[in-house]
Amino acid sequence: MKRQKKKKPSFRKLLKTSNVKLENKLKNRQFKQQSTAKKQRKEQRKLRQAISDVSQKAPKPLEHYKTKPEDEEDEEFLESLPTDMMEEDDLEEIRAMAQKASFITRDLSSSAPVHAKKRKSDQPLEKYEKMPRKMQQSDEKELIHLLPIKDKSGLIPQSMEKPVVQKADEDEHDEEPEDQEEMEQESLLNLNPEEQLKLRSQKLMEKKLRIAALGSAILADPTCNIKKLKELRAMLMETDSCVAVTVRKLVMVSLMEIFKDIVPSYRIRPLTEAEKAVKVKKETKQLREFEEGLVSQYKFYLENLEQTIRDWKQKKQKGSQAVSLSCYKGLAEVAIRCMCELLVALPHFNFHNNITVVVVSFMNEPVKKVSEMCCEAVRKLLKQDKLGQASLATVRVISGLVKSRNYKIKPAVLDTLLSLRIKEVEVKKDSEDLAPKQKFMNFKEKKKNLSRMQRKVMKEGKKEMRLEVVSLKSSNTETLNIVFLIYFRILKKAQKSVLLPSVLEGLAKFAHLINLEFFDDLLSVLHSLVMSGDLSHKESLHCILTAFHILSGQGDVLNIDPLKFYTHLYKTLLVLHAGASNTDMTIVLKCLDVMLTKRRKQVTLHRALAFLKRLATLALHVMPDSCVGILAANRTLIHTFPKCDILLDNDMQGSGVYLPELDEPEYCNPQNTCLWELHTLKRHYHPMVKKYASHLLAGAPSEGSGALSIDLSRRAPSQLFEDYSVKDMTFNPPVMGPPSKKKVTSLQS
């Protein structure tokens, strides 16, 4: 008979048996728990019963034994013996034996033998036995696990105890500074001034060395020594009144320079919870710790600077009184200077908008030094900003400042907007318009020029550049909208404000970027301002320059005759300031360039001749720098309008007489006069004026003996005016005295 094989149990059977096993295990576990609980309850019951028995049991009276007469006599004899007969050593030994005797200390009422074993349940429990005992706990020293050492036997683990600072010592150190300061103040009062100065210089040198050591360590390895920034920043709270002000200033400047060196070239953002949970490399973790520590310390540093400035403005004095109230101004100036430096140096880093708000708010400060410092910092920021984001944030804050102060701010605040780089970027066309249409390359051109990978990289680079241009253009457009909003609000609500010259100068610079829809309204406003008569010469010149900037750009499509602006400029030329403080000549020369040279097709010959004659008359009574600029403008007019050379002859053209006092350039008959002023200017004491006058009399030739040098001929009149300004002149006019005989005879001849 064949042996039957065991059948494999089915899955359901296995599942059934496993459930039975689990139930049995659970029952066994519950039974064990119940049995242990029963044992514990039984022991507690016995313990309570023993305690109640001992407390209820009454003590038995002591038994009295009859003594024999012989024992009584022995006791009487021993008591009658004097103790002086016993030696001291014997007496002490007897007393010690008496204390150790067991029959004295044991319970005499019990009938149990002395050395019999007692059960635990029979021993009475005292109160101190019932109370929980406190074991003497020793301070557990924390261990730092080090890298193991490997030898022949295997790995040997290494560890060391972490040093623990005792709290008692810390409390003592906290209490010590107050007493130490009082003692130092008392000792300083006892010293003479020379000793006090010597002690101060010694303390100051120690602090300087400490600052230098910390700064050098941080700059040497910022990643590892980032915690030393906190130690250096703690010195901003220096409490030693002897050197507190100087030390705080030094620490402010040192931290500012350190942050400028160690701050990365990107913005640090906080990590998300998901990023923190991901396990990263050791180097990445170290970099994250460095960035987190840098941002936190930078934030605390800026808060300290802002608190110093706020204390100065609110005239608050701290409780420590380490710094007097009069010294807060110097500390605040250093803090503002540090913020200005960080504003310019770190426009890409965190908290830049916070710095911008603080610096812009102090641009309108009554203290001139602080105001100029902040305005210069904002001007530098706007000049060097290539991305447009920092400029946009700054212009927003300035707009809020102007509106909150109800347009009662310094003109220097609006003058900073002239440093915007919008004109340089917006003049260029889009890269899409400049890019030629795509052409397919044949095989030879592909092989000759670039590989496929190189063409791919170049294509990606062009896309990125195009995106950058688009983002820059959008930010510049938004910035320009805010700037024009500021200017138009002032033109509408504060026409008699001191801000009007700055507004007109700004409009003159950015007028070519204004939308065509506003041209008519803006020109009518400018004309009404010019004709009102309430403006100064400089303000009216700015109005004229703004109007012609509008017409020279997109305004070419408009059919507008600016004759009134020509007339106003012609009338204003003779009333300009002729002294050394003449600041209007630069604007006049710019107006002449825009009105006559760049609009040569819209200017009549009579108008050009009238301006040429009036400028020659103006050159007689101005300073040499202005005279050179005017003669250069006349040279440009002669080259632009060649028929103006009729003023170099004595012949009259047409009828009428020249009317120099008439303020209409079209009707003053300028063709019937000549430029006799040039002969007078040939005898001027300044050599450059002589040179230009002789050059114009020769017909302003471009070549030949009478021509100017290439350097002079290529310069604009406004540049020549700035080059030969009176402030920079090295040539001094001769001292006028009695004429000599030689000069008299030469004049007569």
From TrEMBL:
Q: Which domain of life is it from?
A: Eukaryota
Q: Which Pfam families match?
A: CBF, NOC3p
- InterPro entries documented for this protein: ARM-type_fold, CCAAT-binding_factor, Noc3_N, Nucleolar_cplx-assoc_3
Q: Where is the composition biased (Basic and acidic residues)?
A: 60-69
Keyword annotations = Coiled coil, Nucleus
**Residue stretches making up the Nucleolar complex-associated protein 3 N-terminal domain:** 207-301
| GO CC terms, sorted | nucleolus
Compositionally biased, Acidic residues: which spans? Answer: 169-185
Localization of this protein: Nucleus, Nucleolus
Select a single GO molecular function from the record's annotations and give it.
chromatin binding
Q: Where is the composition biased (Basic residues)?
A: 1-15, 38-48
Q: Which family does it belong to?
A: Belongs to the CBF/MAK21 family.
Designated name of the protein: Nucleolar complex protein 3 homolog
Which species is the source of this protein?
A: Astyanax mexicanus
